[in-house]
Amino acid sequence: MSVAPRSQRELVDEIRGRLLRRHSTAAVLFHHAVAERLGLGPTDHKCLDVLREHGPMIGRELAAITGLTSGAITGVVAPLERAGYLRRERDPHDQRKQILTPAPERSRDLEAVFGPIRDDAAALLTGFDTSQLTAIAEFLVRSTDFIYRRSALLRAQTALSPQRRETTAPTARRRGHARG
After folding, report:
1. What is the pLDDT of residues 90-114, one digit of tens each?
2. What are the pLDDT digits (tens) for 60-92?
3. Are β-strands 57-58 and 94-102 bridged in parallel, bridged antiparallel, or unpaired?
């Protein structure tokens, strides 16, 4: 699928509508497939990705970046540790805290999955000139920052929303998580 030449307004409308939605859906489905290939859940996989990008951190820091609760982080850390992707180490300055560190022993497994993907991405980019690549890189930087900002805003709005309190319990029941 290629994009036909049009006016700037038509391109912006196409990008912010159908193209970004299509790209987002493909990215989510792709990361589900990657997680499955690694023997992880999608949230586990992306938390591991955050740790690989940012380096060792405590669970509270991972929760702050991802927006997950401390309980959800505990639920992510355990399978990552069991699968050998993560190590927990005592914080030398505060023995109550554990530092979460990606395990280098599994880097070959990650490279086996991501190496061919990076090669394919490089091949995908070969048809673009330096000016176009600069625009693509700038868009990725700006859109990533935008997504993080919008995620934080959505979480803040959700936390303040009275509707959230009304819908949380029925949602848990529908998913089979309600007790009693």
Report:
1. 988 888 889 999 999 998 899 999 9
2. 999 999 999 989 999 999 999 999 999 999 988
3. antiparallel
Q: Which domain holds residue 84?
A: 1-126
- 89 with 22, same domain: the answer is yes
User: In this prediction, what percent of the chain has a pLDDT beyond 90?
Assistant: 71
Predicted TM-score (pTM) of this structure: 0.78
Pairing of strands 94-102, 86-91: antiparallel
Dist. CA 125–CA 145, nearest whole Å: 22
Last residue of a domain, one of 126, 151, 170: 126
Same domain, 32 and 111: yes
Side-chain half-sphere CA neighbours of 93 within 13 A: 2
Neighbours of 81 (CB within 10 A): 14
Helix (H) or strand (E) holding 96: strand 94-102
The answer to whether residues 166 and 147 belong to one domain is yes
Phi (first) and psi of residue 92, to 5 degrees: -65, -20
Question: How many distinct structural domains can be found in the chain?
Answer: 2
